[in-house]
């Protein structure tokens, strides 16, 4: 390790020096991003040589702002969130030196997009019940099974994959974690159409896919621990700035209320005001959470934020349809599309209403989140686990 | 896009202040004492008030030092409100150290203000406790420098040494001894009401126009949100502690999802109430232009959270929570009175509708 952790001034000096030597307007975006990674200014809290400088994590926002101000190309983080938010921290925590050097740079620059092969038709909230089998075959593994809810699978180069390697031990102990080549023979990606008509997600069928042992992350049988690291990082990344007042869905509803007086009723007025207040409360809560992180006082409040966000989105989008009355009966388009981003405000009210239903299911159902808050924040007793000591192969399914 | 101007966190000074206030309240205002107090004739706990107001110096927090105060801000005052809310403490802090103090600060009055800041005198604004900021009814008139009329449901009306009475387009100070006061059997006996009648009471005009009263009620509503936050936290803490130790069907009742999930939702609501209440306190402290919106949001939101917390506290304690010999009803009564106090959530939403251009049907 180098001497002291770089501070704000040191980082500012380094960014200035980098920008003086690398003119963003004169370089290929990819070359610029690679150079930025090599200078340790990609994610400053990562170690030196792996895109970082071992600096405190909260100093990243200022670095990003400097690059944005200079008109530098970005790695389009909104498109590679799974790589940045889930694969990278897992590789950093459990990868070999060789794996870190091979995967992290093209992951960060966006050259190699990542997806996540975790959920299965029979393993949703109970991820550790998963059934995708990996069988050792010399210096490689043969993997077969079905994964589901995989966003970006059709564009991804690599996947983080968790498998069952030992069916004879209780479920948490018999799992192993891999990096899977999405271009390997036996990997089949099929779009999964959802209630909105489009397909953001995929099903991924794995049939005798060969994965070299050098692409294993962590020890054999350690897959649950590695997965936990991935999932802990799922919602750590939080945007840099407070959303302005009336942004998002409440803005659409408020504008509708102002523009269409003929839609107004006393009951809907009360509902709009209640939704406005709750949205503002959620916005301030997000702002406070960011202030805590910036001050280096992270708290458990983030786990409540997703719960509140899901409930609010569902309420406000449902209110919008009712406010619209007759127009709420119409839908913009049921064609199966393949969107790369979810944008609530650019589609129709019907889409917003339907898409919001996913908010309390994806990334941990609201019921599981409530368990987590109750047990980890409030210290209430855990759920009774009847499957804890039963070999995986003997579990009812 | 700029980051929010308000600091929504607690400073080290605020954390220290919280610790000293809590230490005093733990010692002098355990719920058993608060419960015993509501059956006594004394309208408030005078001993506790002396300690909080004068010894700890909390009464003068938002008052500048050259006016006899501590020279802190409404942010620190809000922290004291959180702690007093945690204990449903029977002291006239909201009424005298917040609402009356804000009125006198706005009016530029000095003499009475200094005595309130020192905790030597108690003044209350003579309006019904249910009054929403900006909606003071004109029930008292001025005749030859004296006041004539009645005001009902004045919070801490019996505790007051001085009544600040909106009348004749201004604000008047009246010695409480010159008014006829009738104690009201109140829903919340930890903050008791009085009906007040004036029949030619000598009065001193302390402010012109309605600004002092409007600012006083707005500041009171902002600080009340912090009281509601503290009260909600207390209800959650007590309930969580109870459901861990109460066994039925061979398990702690807190192991059932039927309770766990509701407590998780309550905790989430409280994290929101904290952000909302801190924002309102910061806005008032900075005299921010956003104050009326921040306060309307805080009251609409925090009233509901505190009430929910108190209602869940009663329900999740089961039978014991329905008894007089348990603290839960103290919190429930305070929470319900607070939800009505300084404007119901509905009245604050109506105020908000005008402020953010969401007109009624």
From TrEMBL, chain A:
Domain Acyl-CoA oxidase/dehydrogenase middle: 115-209
Positions of the Acyl-CoA dehydrogenase/oxidase C-terminal domain: 221-378
Co-factor requirement: FAD
Coiled coil: none
GO MF: flavin adenine dinucleotide binding; oxidoreductase activity, acting on the CH-CH group of donors
Cellular component terms (Gene Ontology): plasma membrane
Domain Acyl-CoA dehydrogenase/oxidase N-terminal: 28-111
UniProt keyword annotations, A-Z: FAD, Flavoprotein, Oxidoreductase
Stated family: Belongs to the acyl-CoA dehydrogenase family.
Protein name: Acyl-CoA dehydrogenase
Organism in which the protein naturally occurs: Actinomadura darangshiensis
Automatic annotation (TrEMBL), chain B:
PANTHER family hit by this protein: ACYL-COA DEHYDROGENASE (PTHR43884), ACYL-COA DEHYDROGENASE FADE28 (PTHR43884:SF20)
Protein's recorded name: Acyl-CoA dehydrogenase
Keywords per UniProt: FAD, Flavoprotein, Oxidoreductase
Cofactor: FAD
SUPFAM superfamilies recorded: Acyl-CoA dehydrogenase C-terminal domain-like, Acyl-CoA dehydrogenase NM domain-like
Protein family: Belongs to the acyl-CoA dehydrogenase family.
Domain Acyl-CoA dehydrogenase/oxidase N-terminal positions: 13-114
Molecular-function GO term, any one: flavin adenine dinucleotide binding
Alphabetical list of InterPro entries matching this protein: AcylCo_DH-like_C (IPR036250), AcylCo_DH/oxidase_C (IPR009075), AcylCoA_DH/ox_N (IPR013786), AcylCoA_DH/ox_N_sf (IPR037069), AcylCoA_DH/oxidase_NM_dom_sf (IPR009100)
Pfam families: Acyl-CoA_dh_1, Acyl-CoA_dh_N
Domain of life: Bacteria
Acyl-CoA dehydrogenase/oxidase C-terminal domain segment(s): 209-354
